[in-house]
Amino acid sequence: MSDAWRRLALLAVPALLWASDAAAFRVDVDAQFRGLDVEVVVHSSDMETGLIMAVTNNEPTDVRCHFQFRNGPEVTRRRRILLEPGETLPVRHSPGRSVVRMRVMVRCEALEETGS
What we know:
This protein has 116 residues and is α+β, with helices and mostly antiparallel strands. It has one helix at 3-21; strands at 26-32, 38-46, 50-57, 63-70, 77-83, 88-93, 101-110. The protein has one domain (24-110): Immunoglobulin-like, CATH 2.60.40. The chain has one helix and seven strands, in the order αβββββββ. The longest helix has 19 residues, at 3-21.
């Protein structure tokens, strides 16, 4: 192997290691909206930024959503948000270790309107 190829190989190894650290992971979303017009969009899923999703409430009433994040051996993490009509909020989760696949369960329910 020539010296040029050896130098190229030595430069490529750290680049490959860095790329694997920032690699994206698969996200499976199990959404249970119970007939509500709610949208969940995954914006980012890599080890550097974590999982970032946008949740939009297209209903005329407030909606509460519960999230469960599972990724193998880690403890299930939970989040809860309250969305006003037409509102979009980010939901984030940063896993503590390397992830190949993240499972997210989303359950949303309309809040009862209270009369004045």
